[in-house]
Amino acid sequence: DAMVIQNPRYQVTQFGKPVTLSCSQTLNHNVMYWYQQKSSQAPKLLFHYYDKDFNNEADTPDNFQSRRPNTSFCFLDIRSPGLGDAAMYLCATSSTGPTIGYTFGSGTRLTVV
Amino acid sequence: EDQVTQSPEALRLQEGESSSLNCSYTVSGLRGLFWYRQDPGKGPEFLFTLYSAGEEKEKERLKATLTKKESFLHITAPKPEDSATYLCAVARWGAGNMLTFGGGTRLMVKP
Q1: Closest CA of chain A from B61, distance in Å
Q2: Domain with residues A4-104, CATH architecture
């Protein structure tokens, strides 16, 4: 089945230690998104890639970076995680046709200790 | 600025007790309104997309409706397995594929 896969499902990192979360897709969608979701809150868009074009949300902290080496993979790098960065990180993809179809991965739960 | 407000924040139902979840939105040029189900610790799972006022879609015990100001997710005779957080999101023309999410409604169905 075509899908969006996030690894790992759970990540524990130390305060200030860089961490990378990964996302892969088999849908061949040209848009990939990273969302941050804290407990009982709506998902918050951090950035997205339209093909190789990177689009950062204005309020996304500089601590968060992203890479998309090819259509299938996208990475979220947190350079110096703080306690406030503990959250669920969701990757999603969509096509750019007339109907919008978002597919989400299962998420990575990040804990900062 | 696009706004999406969901109510109630939490809803407790007895099994079989039908109810509705509300999603009020303000967007200039609605491209689509989306409903997702999210189970704890998992990513959102797509339920419905509605594109124009008057449109309705159904899936099992769920029925989504849309007006020019709000959408309702009706749950008929819910079962405990319907317990989840239900998220509403809107897409606006001219904003690419960007979605603006509401805060969600956490539904708990007791047996």
Answers
A1: 22
A2: Sandwich (2.60)
Which residues is B20 bridged to in the sheet?
B74
Q: Tens-digit pLDDT profile for chain B (111 aa)?
A: 889 999 999 999 999 999 999 999 999 889 999 999 999 989 999 999 999 999 999 999 999 999 999 999 999 999 999 999 999 999 988 777 788 999 999 999 999
- Beta strands B84-92 and B105-110 are antiparallel
Residues sharing a CB contact under 8 Å with residue A62, sequence separation 6 or more, in sequence order: none
| Counted domains in chain B | 1
> Is A104–B45 a contact, with Cβ atoms under 8 angstroms apart?
yes
Yes or no: say if B24 and B4 are a contact pair by the CB < 8 Å rule: yes
A105–B32 CB contact, under 8 Å: no
Are A6 and B43 inside 8 Å of each other by CB? yes
Contacts of A90 in chain B (CB under 8 A): 43-44
What are the extents of the domains in chain A? 4-104
Domain assignment of residue B27, given as a range? 3-107
CATH code for position B93: 2.60.40.10
Pair of tokens at residue B65: 């409706």
Contact B98 A45 (CB under 8 A): yes
